[in-house]
Amino acid sequence: MSLAPHPETGSAPLPPEPRPDSTPLPGARPGRDPERAIKRGPRRQSAEAVAATQRDRLFDGLVHEVAARGYDNARVTDICGAAGVTRPAFYALFAGKEDAFLATYRHGTAVLLRLMDDAYAGAGPDWTTAARAALRTLLEVLASVPAFARMALVEIDAAGPAARDERDLLLSRFHRFFHPARPRSPLSPEEDDLLVTTVVAGIYGTLRLRVSQGRTAELPRLLPVLTYAMTAPFLGPGAGDRAARAADAGGPGVTAPCAVDPARPARGDD
């Protein structure tokens, strides 16, 4: 398989990505994971398989280095060292640090959204229950992989305009958890859409603040108040309070940072 340069970045394109629900969240493993060692000798892996393994290790290495050093201070050399991948191999996959950051962010948020989709769909037809399940998954998965949480919520601000555009696109995708099952607010359709945007932005800002303060492990504790913030504008304060109390009751945690059910198609982006 020949890899021609990407027309925009000039770098070789990534090999076909594994489905986002078949791999852990970037940063959940060390880049130098011995289980992903490149096989040598007569049974060595194909060039495509080697490139895919190197890419995944670089995803993990980048998350850990950016979380530890900050985007500006994390050098390509550091990322390669954390992943156990050479600089020539890095540049065969990415045009540079920004390109690698964007690819890691897109891949990681695809995994996160699939996890939330699965939780939302598996919670049943009641919108309040489904929305709370998706929100709980978001909080607990981010808490379980704090390096990704910092890279994706905090350091993305330093990664340039393209990264911030990706962040804005992600926030628009969170609207899928508000449509079409939830009750409408008493506002006009245009104002109702703006209300959803406001709720999403408020939740995101709260998470970013906690992560920037080094309090990522506390994110699951925010479930009751964020459930209220997510539901009360549409259901009213009484129903929002009941939803928050149900969230406070707890239950089995979401601990695996890896999405499941690879056979089921992903939900479309709303």
UniProtKB/TrEMBL annotation:
Region (Disordered): 1-51, 241-270
Keywords noted in UniProt: DNA-binding, Transcription, Transcription regulation
DNA-binding region per UniProt: 75-94
Xref: PROSITE patterns: HTH_TETR_2 (PS50977)
HTH tetR-type domain: residues covered: 52-112
GO molecular function terms listed in the Swiss-Prot or TrEMBL record: DNA-binding transcription factor activity; transcription cis-regulatory region binding
Compositional bias segments (type: Pro residues): 13-23
PANTHER family noted in UniProt: HTH-TYPE TRANSCRIPTIONAL REGULATOR BETI, HTH-TYPE TRANSCRIPTIONAL REGULATOR RUTR
UniProt name for this protein: TetR family transcriptional regulator
